[in-house]
Each structure stands twice: as structure tokens, then as C-alpha cells.
Amino acid sequence: MNSLVQQLDIYKQEIISYNVSNADEVEAFRIKYLGTKGIIKHAMGFMKDVPNEQKREAGQLLNEFKLMVEAKYESLKESFSASEQITNTIDFSLPGNIYNVGTRHPLSIIRNKIVSIFQRLGFAIAEGPEIEDDWHNFGAMNLPEDHPARDMQDTFYVNQNPTWLLRTHTSSVQARVMENQKPPIRVICPGRVYRNETISARAHCFFHQVEGLYIDENVSFADLKQTLYFFVQEMFGKDVKVRFRPSYFPFTEPSAEMDISCLICNGDGCNVCKHTGWVEILGSGMVHPKVLENFGIDSNKYTGFAFGMGVERICQLKYRVNDLRLYSQNDIRFLKQFTSVI
Ligand code: DAH
């Protein structure tokens, strides 16, 4: 009888700390304790050796033990199938988490479009620094120190040092290209420029330009016009009207500004076109012989045309943005209205 009590105590300890991690192990427990050749069956076999006067007590002990094993078996089964149920309760038909995808800035969309139109005409992309020296921004472009046309562009100087400045136009990239390449040259130069202007709906202290430069033998004003006509048609469609007005830039001779018919009012007159029906989109001209000579390019052999356009202005016409400040305020309500794949 004593040995039966001892043996059951050992089993009880084992059962209390018994753990399973999958359905097979639950089944192994059942077979070990409750199976036809299991421990309970085996323990019942002791009954025949127990003296009659102790049979009642031994029967009770064995019964308690059996109940304990059965309870443990039920709880193992339950805990395991409960954890199985958790994985089964994931509803795969629920909508997933939505991650917001960013959009391109409208100025980037327009700049990319401008660049890709000229790339199709064989123009390569060139870039230059935003912090420039006086020579590349002004001197080389035929604007010597005392030239009155410097006043056309209010300049930010770096640390009030007159030799270093924030470029006022992308024409400085023309200078860098001519310095490093021999004709034929055919480049498009997109970039940010800076001017010391009071910020308002119509002016900003930084904006964006795309410069174009084409130098080769026999390049004529007709080439310039035809190239820009093509650009306008690709950018704005076939119905847009174009006109050239004579103008002045120190780095081109002759010079012209190009207007297109106002897309906001279709030429009827509005605030954007100042009631003229026309909007200026770029400056252009034949590269001044002095500019070519500044870089050792023979102006008797080579001629070239150049142009520079404002990306914000083209963006305004395409998207009807009426306040320049919107471009740099980072207001998501404004930015998310523009979508493009380029
Ligand atoms: N650099 C001029 C500006 O910022 C624009 C310009 C005019 C560029 C005529 C040119 C050009 O290349 O030929 O106002």
C-alpha cells in the first residue's frame, strides 16, 4: 500500500509539470496515462495485491489519480486547441493597412517634361553649382562689373563677398559647359536660381529655370524658332499661338522673348496675362560672339542659340497655380493634387 502511495506521488509530480507544444504531444500524454497499456491501467493492476481491509482506501487513491490525469488531459487538449484557434481567427479578407504613396512636386513634373521634350531633339542634360563665382554668372556672359544690366537681377552674395554669389540664372551653366566642351554643343540645363526679391504671389527669392544651348556650324535664328515652336506644341498642344518680341540680353544678339497665347483665359484677357492675351515664357537669342570668344570658340566658324525659361511660369499655365508661394509651403493639400509617372 505504501509503495502504491509513493508511486502515485511520483506520477502526480510528473503530471503537474507535464507540458505539450503540439497536438501530437497531447496524444502522446493520453496514450502514456490513459491508453489501454497506459499507467492508469497498470496501476489498477496493483489492486489485486492490496489486502482486503485496505482496498477501499487504495480504490479511492487510484480514482483520485485517474480524475487528476483526465483533468490534465482535458486542459492540455483545450490549451492547445485554444492557441490553434487564435491563428484561425485571422480574417484574411480584412482590408490591409494603407500606406500613403508620395507624389512628385508639380515643379519636378514640369521640369521633367521640359527636359524630356528637348532630350528627344538630342539635347543632353548639363548641371552646374548653385553657389557660383562672378565670372560664370556674369563676366563670362558678357556682363562686366559695371554693366547696367546687372541690375536686372538682384543678387544674393555669399558672406557679402563680391566674388561668390547664388546664381541668378542658369545661364551660368552655359559658361561651365563651354569651358569644358568643344562644339558641337547641345545641352539643356535645369536648375534652381536665386534673386533678392521680396516674396509675394508673383515673386520669390528662389525659382527654377531650364536653360538651352546649341552651338555648331551654321546654326541660325530659324533653328532657334523652330526648336521653340516644337517645344511649345509638345508642351501645350497644337492650338497654342506663339509670338517673338525683340528684346535685350547681354549674352545674345539679336535677342527675343517668346510669348504664348494665355491658356488661362484663351487670349480673352485675365490677371495672369495682364489683359493682353499673351504670356511671356522665355528669353532667347543668338549667342553673342563675345561669349563664344570668352571660351575660345571661333565665332567666325561657329554660331549658336540659347534660351532660358521659368519652370514656375510654365507650371502656372499648365496647372493654374496663381500664387508662387504655394510651391515652397509644403502644404500636403496642394502637393497631393499633382500626379504623374515622370
Ligand atoms: N538668363 C535670362 C534670365 O534669367 C534668360 C535668358 C535669356 C537665357 C536669353 C538665355 C537667353 O539663354 O539667351 O532672365
Description:
The chain has 342 residues and is α+β, with helices and mostly antiparallel strands. The protein folds into 2 domains: 86 residues; 230 residues, Bira Bifunctional Protein, Domain 2 (BirA Bifunctional Protein, domain 2), CATH 3.30.930.10. The protein is 39% helix and 20% strand. It is rod-shaped. The relative contact order is 0.11. The model has no long low-confidence stretch (mean pLDDT 91). The site of 3,4-dihydroxyphenylalanine has 12 residues, from β9 and β10.
Give the topology string: H per helix, E per strand: HHHHHEEHEEHEEHEEEHEHH
Please identify which CATH superfamily of the largest domain we are dealing with: Bira Bifunctional Protein, Domain 2
Largest sheet: 7 strands, mixed
> Beta fraction of the residues?
15-25%
Which features would summarize this protein structure in a list?
binds 3,4-dihydroxyphenylalanine; alpha+beta; three-stranded antiparallel beta sheet; single chain; BirA Bifunctional Protein, domain 2; 11 helices; 39% helix; 342 residues; seven-stranded mixed beta sheet; 10 strands; 2 domains
Quick recap of the structure?
About 40% of the residues lie in helices and about 20% in strands.
Topology:
Elements: H1 2-16, H2 23-34, H3 39-44, H4 52-88, H5 106-120, E1 124-125, E2 131-133, H6 134-137, E3 157-158, E4 161-166, H7 171-180, E5 185-194, E6 206-216, H8 221-236, E7 242-249, E8 252-261, E9 278-287, H9 289-294, E10 303-310, H10 311-319, H11 332-335
Parallel strand pairs: 1-5
Antiparallel strand pairs: 2-4, 3-4, 5-6, 6-10, 7-8, 8-9, 9-10
Helix pairs in contact: 1-4, 2-4, 5-10
3,4-dihydroxyphenylalanine is lined by residues 169, 171, 211, 249, 251-252, 283-285, 306-308.
